[in-house]
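> @MW can you paste both from yesterday?
MW: sure, first one:
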Amino acid sequence: MTGTDRDHALLLIHPLGADLHFWDDFVAAIDGRMTTVAVDLRGAGGSPGIGRPISLAEHVADIEAVRAELHTTTVSVISCAIGSMCAATYAALHSDRTRALVMANPTPRTLPQARDMLTARAELVHQGGMAAILPGAVERAFLNLPHDLRYDFYMKRFSEQDAEAYALALLAAAEADATEALGQIRCPTLLVPGRHDVLLPMANAEAVQALLPSARMSVMEDAAHFVPYQQPQRLAELVLDFIGRLSAASHASERHK
């Protein structure tokens, strides 16, 4: 957690195969202008698993427990990729706590073709560990982007994670579906797909917007599957502008009551 504001914080939910350090550069770009809370979903990073796939509802219960423990009154949930389904479910179940929602590389659910891919990848990891899916799993997430220090750092952290925990997360992601939750969201929402994302392409973001017509969309042209990691500075400014405008509009409304 960075910052001391307990009234409102940015709640950061990482994608499949990552942990809370996925947000380090984004948090640095926020530069203290808002309080941030990055979480390790159960089974990722420093959060222990339970030996089976974990549902979206279970992740949401964990996240709400963290929010309550930190005594943070409201949150704006910022998420990426598979994590966006967790964020949507949180916003639907805890609408009284959710001021805004930002979903980078969003998807409403795991489609059948992706489900088959995730299940097959889980089997490969079960049989051969993380090395069995490298470098291809990371290369696709960085399509058309340079293999620079950022790429190398992500590759290192991805390859060193617990293989069994990752395989279980893959199986959970294969069954994930936030379609119903998206229809229940009432808070202002921003969608930020990556132009070069072939894992969750533009069609997925458009499917989210069809379920949530009030959502704004801003395409990140120089990003692939991990907008917050690949363009942290630009996403930070986009988030601060989005939430800042909401706050200004809310204050103006209060003055005119």
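MW: second:
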Amino acid sequence: MRHPFSEVRPLLWLGIAGMTLAALSGVVAVVHGAIILPEGDLTKSMSFDAAVGIYVLTLALFLPLAEFTPGARRRWIRFVVGLTCFGYAVETIQVLRGIDPRFTRVGGAGDQIAGALFGISALGIMTMFIVLAVKLWRRPLKGPDLLFLLAIRYGSIVTVMGFLSGFWMSALQGRHVGPGGNILPLHALCFHAIQAVPLVALFLSKSNLTDTQAKFWIHLAGLSWLGTCLAVGWQTAMGKPLTQISGIMVTAFGLALLWAICLAKAALSSRMTRQPALAR
């Protein structure tokens, strides 16, 4: 019998590769220093490679739920592997050369072309994500995968917002908005939706709550994360730092706390379900 993850093994190795590259960049940063003149910043390549690695590993978990045909699944994986490898290469190599991989101001024509292709590859990765999301959205919310499919719907909506925030940075040729806004926290927060909401579903799938009760908590967790991202995006678009106290940021904090309550409720429900079995 084939292992359930054998079909997505290339994605697993791809995710591990990203984490490895991030670790190697960290070693170089410790030995050499994080800044490589004139523009290289190893903290950026570390965060990019690690974040993309985690993203790919998450997709590997969701791909079996999409019910692609074997041929379509292989093609989808090949596109994701090719695009992601190109992204790893440009981000890591350019930083080690002291060049900003996206918005270089000192690089030559080849560096400019690499930056443009980097943006095109990001568009391709977003397209592959949307293809996967559409397949998952088409599945009816019933059966043993009900809770995960519902959570993934929320996660996919917010993740698309993460891609759009990346294109926002590309349009601005940087991450800064106005005197104090920074798009990068919004970018990261949106992408973590595909872990944050399904994590609640994972705990709830092991609880004794009814489907109706479990769906309520997933809706609440999904809307809370979505609302947090919208509030953070609003503060950023106004050119204000997230550390600046405002009604928007109080709302964002409150919604993030509500998501944490949902996670705690799901975890406690899962734990209470296991206790009778342990007692026996």
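> thanks! Residues 1-139 form one domain.
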